[in-house]
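Write out this protein's structure.
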Amino acid sequence: MSSSTPSSLSAAAAATPRHTTAALTTEYQTDPVGIDVARPRLSWQLRSDARGLTQAAYQIQVALGMDALARGDLFWDSGKIASDQSVQVDYAGPVLSSSQRYIWRVRTWNRSGEASDWSAPAFWEMGLLRPSDWSAAWITPAWDEDTSKSNPAPLLRKEFAVEGEIRDARLYVTSLGLYEAELNGQRVGDAVLTPGWTSYDHRLVYQTYDVTSQLKSGANALGVTLGNGWYRGPLTWDLERNTYGDRVALLAQLRITYADGRIQTIASDASWKASTGPILLSEIYAGECYDARLKKSGWSQPGYDDRDWSAVRVLDHRKDILVAPLSPPMRRIEEIKPVAILHTPAGETVIDFGQNMVGWVRLKVHGPAGTTVTLRHAEVLDKAGNFYTANLRHAAQQIDYTLSGRGDETFEPHFTFQGFRYVAVQGWPGEPSLESFTGIVVHSDLPRTGHWESSNARLNQLQHNILWGQKGNFVDVPTDCPQRDERLGWTGDAQVFARTAAFNLNVVGFFTKWLRDVAADQKPSGAVPFVIPDVLSRNKETEGSSGWSDVATIAPWTLYLVYGDRRALETQYPSMKAWVEFIRTRAKGDLWTTGWHFGDWLSYATTSPDYPGATTGKDLIASAFYAHSADLLSKAATVLGKADDARTYTELFERIKVAFNREFVTPSGRVGEATQTAYVLALQFDLLPEDKRPEAARRLAADVKRFGNHLTTGFLGTPYLCRVLSDHGQLDTAYALLNQDTYPSWLYPVSQGATTIWERWDGIKPDGTFQDAGMNSFNHYAYGAIGDWMYSVVAGIDIDPAAPGYKHLLIQPRPGGGLTDVRARLETQYGQVASAWKLADGHLELVVEIPPNTRATIRLPGAARMKDVRESGQPLARAAGITQVSRRDDAVIVAAGSGEYRFTYPLRR
């Protein structure tokens, strides 16, 4: 076998295996109810324990019911399609109808022509597709309110009769503000903080619930509680109210289909009744005041006496902005039990949950009527061990629960959430116990996809912190922080973290939904606001900021790379183009040197007299991101077949590069202010001539070493730092940064006991004091963007941009940093990918899992000779599933089909 040319091993491949077809999804969801995509995309997975499984063809059948499918009465049959596509296959049948359920199944053929059995049936159900499908009216309580302050949460109710055998029933519902619905005294669904937060002026999400089992023959009742939420509650550090409107309102439509085909509709209208109940105040930042003595028992059940309730009035509000969800809702995801009850030096009783989390506390209490228990929430204790809330600014994060006195009482808040690890308890009747408190973790219900662990416990804690920072800030929008008077969808934070986010959780729907709001709130000029939904510059022009507003190009391209989502790229393309064109109108000489920019936010500020600080010029940063956005736009245009645009923006990118080098790069290779971020952006965005790249990388590594293997980067330089170093021959320096545990570094917060990612490198200083309380979040995920490098370089699971969505996998781990083993796995649309390596006795073992209907290029680092490599004990030439082997630099390169492979070999000395 030659060491200089690839060797074909296809003859050694095993016979094509028998397989099954399973894991059917529609628009990334399993059996979704209430979607409004005109041509839903259908996906499935192939399953087999053998190697080398590739799909050669598929057939999809769709019917209007299980019985119809069984007897072959089909709504649409694709016929046998010769294709290896198994994800995001467009439905191509007749036009779909509102409220209709569609049953579908699929079978596949492998390359030997063997067909799988038909898959188990799956379904999708359409929502209400046109504004005219809504017979319901917007209703609001008829009373007047002082909307300059918080008011008690309204209760709305309606009784109705059911007569006949029910086939199915759906509740379509949304609100101006937040809502919780009850049917016959039972909560409808398990989503919380519905309908979520969107650009309410342009897009308002409604939910669809299957309530068939909650209805009964005869009298029924539907009740809904409304909350202010993001719609009219206090927002931003200015605590501005009524951002989108000054009235909360309900839009609800219950559709009952009887066995005989009759349809009954109960809709929100002027016949409903309204009152208030025990929720006296419930706001995102402030928390909740709840008086259990005011609870109206049975109010959402039939027969309740509502004669003293008020009327409602119909509110004139749009219905043409209603959209079905693209992202999973927020839910109670898990429960955390507290680990200790503390008594602080200041004399407070504090519950420690052991984890900085987002959600709320469920309390169980018994005591006299009128007793008020107060819970205050904080992320950290101060140096002396006292409760610390100064960093919350105006956010009270306080729960006041007044007991009814009727036995054991259990309570959870309704229209608020808190960011906390510690809870200070006041007014508790008797002595509180750990059993009285449960932490309820709340975030968007995004499936876990990635797992990463290593031989280094501190790095494992870092990965834990990255994941928990993401969970705590993915609360329907990608917020910056979950605790203070902010909690906004900052665009810079989201774009730097998007790739890491997609390793940890399935975020395709989450970002697809949010990017629609990016486009909706984009200014007519093309400028993209700093936060989305836009509550900072709403109804006025803004200039946007480099690295923040570039989310318009970076995030859609990331979705395309990670999920192969061409439709998301196509949908966002006008927004991408508008942003680049906005910059072009502001640029001078192909450089963006105008406007206001955040710059390399929160970069390390040294006072060393012989170093200019870590301040990177904003002109350099803005021009670098201008180039990057133009480059991504040209790539998107190429993917979408927009040849003229691809040529235009490729030429623009090249012109910006020339201007960048003329303005910011010296003949000797110094870039800008010679900061780490200056070199990182120039190298990551491919702005330097090839002959200057090694010198720039050398200077970057030298600067890291000059600071004792510490980083000096901020929000914009940090995400790419280790990637640039490892891509340009400085792997050891990248690992030195990763392993550093003194300030500033990723592991410094870990050494201080952090359980999430901090906003600042020194949120808690080495002397135990705090950074500026005006901006010091201890749950701020942006610096967690190092997670991308930990997965894609340390573990080696990466994407081939030419075959996105992990259709062609790159498994190319880069051992180092004193690590002896690393294990990572990732659930992709095709199935599980895994890469696990171990160093022992001068040998490396690499275990790789490749899902069916994909292929991989596997790099075996440090393999001296191909003949020394064994796969599951066999020479490579005899290993099934391996199709090609070659040598490149210091590694053996293996091309393989699906299956699990175990490579072992002695490392080159």
